Amino acid sequence: MNAPLSLDQTVALRSKAEANRALVRWWLYSICVLVTAMVVVGGATRLTDSGLSITEWQPLLGAIPPLNDQDWQDAFNKYKLIPEFQQINNDMDLAGFKAIYWWEWAHRFLGRFVGLAFFVPMVFFWATGRLEGWLKPRLVLLFVLGGLQGAIGWWMVKSGLVERVDVSQYRLATHLTLASLILMFGLWVGRGLAPHSTTAGPSTLRFQAALLTLLVLWQVFLGGLVAGLDAGLAFNTWPKMDGAWVPGDLWIMKPLWINLFENIKTVQFVHRGGAYVVLAFAAWHLYSSLGSETGLPHKARAVVLFLLVIAQAAIGIVTLLNQVPINIALMHQFGAMVVLGFAVAHWRGLKGPYPPAVEIRKASAFGR
User: Are residues 171 and 259 in the same domain?
Assistant: First the structure.
């Protein structure tokens, strides 16, 4: 039988386990910040019509931009072969090409940087024994999702290189949604590693928070469809749309379901409706939280989440009324990630902390 731990050993083990969790938590938070930056830069790439400027996928060599005049001319000549140049940008010169090229290059470079910023510390934490056993498969899954996101990004770009003059809205929405899932998963794991100042919230509030988070994710997916169709450039009035509360011609395409994905008016109308649903659920959750016996931190987060949803809805309206200016549109996209991230953190907070680390449990046995 092992000898009981001394008080000093107990304190040391507790401190070590808590320090390792804090280190991993803040690393995951930094990755989530980078993923959010990826989403915003991706939005800028879309809004500047830059996404098809690089017509090849070179995971390693693609990190090196054109270094001389001949390299730039070669890249420009490849762009001239795709429909976007031939049908829309055939009057573009090399200077104009460079402007859109750098947006797409920055987006891809940031993706590579996020991969390295995740992989290298993960290997270090793993090799130095800073990761608990249950945490390892979750981090591997996050890394795999990141690689899949890169592949889906190229799958999206490919849709605009042959027959279309832009990328498929289906693939763009998929790309954005997977980025959101990566953000959600990273925050979920990281938030659970944080110290909790109160116990888990009631199951009713946990269910509401989960539902609200999924509704925000669905709204992000709808926003991807809106962006892919440039639907925000049409019907720029609010609260009515095309002069009516429920505009006509929402179901003119056959089969009917395709209107939800390819009819610009329907896609924008559904996205508007989704915002009202999210706002209503956030208000319901706030009301339920304030009237419950849950801890004050849970109630405070419900208040903040409701205010964030209101702010995001207001930014969306301003974006629409001004016909999607890039600065406000990017603020709206950033706001979506903030709302989604806070919703996940709030949901995870209502579940309470993870069980103590192995080292902490062993140390606690000394005090029983």
Answer: no
CB-based contact 208:281 (threshold 8 Å): yes
The predicted model gives 199-222 an average pLDDT of 96
Average pLDDT over residues 117-130: 96
Same domain as 164, residue 69: yes
* Confidence (pTM): 0.92
**Residue 363 confidence class, pLDDT cut points 50, 70, 90:** very low
Q: What is the span of the domain harbouring residue 164?
A: 1-195+354-368
Same domain, 227 and 188: no
CA count, 13 A, side-chain hemisphere, 150: 18
Does position 193 have pLDDT exceeding 70, yes or no?
yes
- For the segment 169-190, what is each residue's pLDDT rounded down to a tens digit? 999 999 999 999 999 999 999 9
| Peptide linkage before 255 cis (omega within 30 of 0) | yes
Residue 250 and residue 187 share a domain: no
Instruction: Clarify whether residues 183 and 232 are in a common domain.
Output: no
Write down the mean pLDDT value for the chain: 92
pLDDT at 89: 94
Q: In sequence order, what DSSP letters do the residues of 232-289 get, joined into one string?
A: GGS---SSSBTTBSS-S-TT-SSSGGGHHHH-HHHHHHHHHHHHHHHHHHHHHHHHHH
Number of domains in the chain: 2
- In whole angstroms, what is the distance from residue 153 CA to residue 172 CA? 8
pLDDT at 364 over 50: no
Tally Cβ neighbours within 10 Å of residue 118: 22
CA separation for the pair 255, 277 (Å, rounded): 26
**What's the one-letter identity of residue 304?**
V
- Residue 74 CB contacts under 8 Å (≥ 6 apart), including other chains: 66
**Count of C-beta atoms within a 10 Å radius of residue 211:** 14
Mark whether 252 and 368 lie in a shared domain: no
Check whether residue 220 and residue 155 sit in a common domain.
Answer: no
Q: 211 is written with which tokens?
A: 């539902």
The first and second tokens of residue 220, run together, are 């992000």
| Contact (Cβ atoms closer than 8 angstroms) between residue 302 and residue 343 | no
Q: Mark whether 242 and 346 lie in a shared domain.
A: yes
